[in-house]
Specification:
Blueprint (H helix, E strand, L loop, with lengths): L3 E10 L2 E11 L4 E5 L6 H9 L6 E6 L2 E2 L10 E4 L11 H11 L4 H15 L14 H13 L5 E5 L7 H18 L2 E6 L2 H7 L2 E6 L2 E6 L1 H6 L4 H7 L5 E10 L2 E6 L2 E6 L12 E6 L4 E4 L7 E11 L2 E8 L2 E8 L9 E6 L5 E3 L6 E2 L3
Parallel strand pairs: 3-8, 3-9, 6-7, 7-8
Antiparallel strand pairs: 1-2, 1-4, 4-5, 9-10, 11-12, 11-14, 12-13, 14-20, 15-19, 16-17, 16-19, 17-18, 20-21
Length: 363
């Protein structure tokens, strides 16, 4: 049974939909990650769940109770914003203790709970310090501690790591996932970074243009994007998308990309799927292999650009009028203008209908 349920929620600003017919459910102790670019409607959805703004239509249920019209302070939901309001003139202790002081709890109980949550989050060393001395990660942990100390039924996290640099953001996303599993709280987490959402979420909703385009496990979304827009959004670095011509030959489909031709045997289960003459062909950079030597299934190409990505390189290669993006180890030492040979892992190629942009499953 769903612990938190969002049913047919829509919200408009003027004539534009911020959210359109959103249906999502979260089990108790689960973390739902919602990924979408800026303007997709993520913050609007969290504010509706928290009761900060009303939906135009639809309902929010918590443990089976309709809380759509319930005031925010009676919902038992805490929310951490992208830029959390940590009070600059108060110590870490006072920031975390603030919600309990509002409830007028005894000082001894406040102290016990503050130190319990601070120890859990690894921030006991900053309880007597002011926020101006906090690192970005410590700042976010204080805000998180203040949200958790009231023992909320649901924790809402609105892009909590967005302002951190890439390395700290990666560490914090793993830490947050581990923390959630340890304490078992039900959470909804939003991010503009699909990889961050796929790391944190037990399940992930892809929100594009105010609509949930796909909902599933992180692995399902990575392996099987339902349409071209989801495919382009969740794959980083971006895939190469080319208009290809398709031709069925007995039990195989031939895919022609300008002068590059690859073929793949279709499965029995996909035998009834109509095969269009043309389709969008999506090839991830990791599925394009590069060699310095010619060989079977390899096409000659010219290195047009090289971009360093830490221990790897992103290379753009022009092969027989087809431009491909590929990931190669940094020690391969590619140079712009150099001739190399590329092959495509056809098992990983994905096809999308040119009209509907929906996935065409042939293997």
């Amino acid at each position: 049974m769903a612990f938190l349920e969002i049913k047919s929620v829509s919200k408009k600003y003027g004539e534009k939909y911020a959210l359109r017919d959103i249906n999502l459910s979260v089990r108790k102790g689960e973390i739902l990650a919602i990924a979408g670019p800026p303007g997709a409607g993520k913050t609007t959805l969290l504010k509706i769940i928290a009761g900060l703004i009303p939906p135009d239509s639809g309902h929010i249920y918590l443990e089976g109770e309709d809380i759509t019209d319930k005031p925010p302070h009676l919902r038992g939901i805490s929310m951490v914003f992208e830029i959390p309001p940590v009070y600059p003139d108060r110590t870490g202790y006072d920031n975390i203790a603030f919600p309990l002081k509002l409830k007028k709890l005894p000082p001894d109980e406040i102290r016990r709970r503050v130190y319990e949550i601070a120890e859990l989050l690894g921030i006991t060393h900053i309880l007597d310090r002011k926020p101006s001395t906090f690192s970005g990660g410590e700042y976010q942990r204080v805000a998180l501690a203040r949200a958790l100390i009231t023992n909320p039924s649901v924790l809402l996290l609105d892009e909590p790591l967005k302002s951190l640099d890439a390395k700290i953001r990666e560490q914090m996303s793993i830490w947050l996932k581990q923390l959630q599993e340890k304490i078992g709280i039900t959470a909804v987490y939003t991010s503009h970074d699909p990889l961050e959402a796929l790391t944190v979420g037990s399940k992930v909703a892809i929100l594009l243009g105010g609509e949930v385009r796909q909902l599933g496990s992180p692995l399902d979304i990575l392996r099987d994007p339902v349409d071209l827009d989801v495919n382009n959004y969740v794959n980083i670095p971006a895939p190469t998308v080319i208009e290809g011509r398709l031709e069925l030959e007995e039990d195989k489909v031939k895919i022609q990309l300008d002068n590059i031709v690859v073929e793949k045997k279709i499965t029995a289960a996909s035998g009834e799927t109509p095969i269009p003459e043309k389709a969008y062909v999506s090839i991830r950079p990791a599925d394009v292999k590069v060699s310095k030597e010619p060989g079977p299934g390899r096409y000659p190409g010219r290195v047009e650009m090289v971009q360093y990505l830490g221990a790897r390189m992103l290379a753009v290669i022009s092969a027989d009028n087809t431009t491909l993006r590929t990931i190669v180890p940094r020690d391969m030492q590619l140079n712009e203008g150099e001739t190399v040979y590329v092959s495509i892992d056809v098992d990983k190629v994905k096809l999308y209908d040119m009209k509907t942009r929906k996935r065409i499953v042939l293997w």
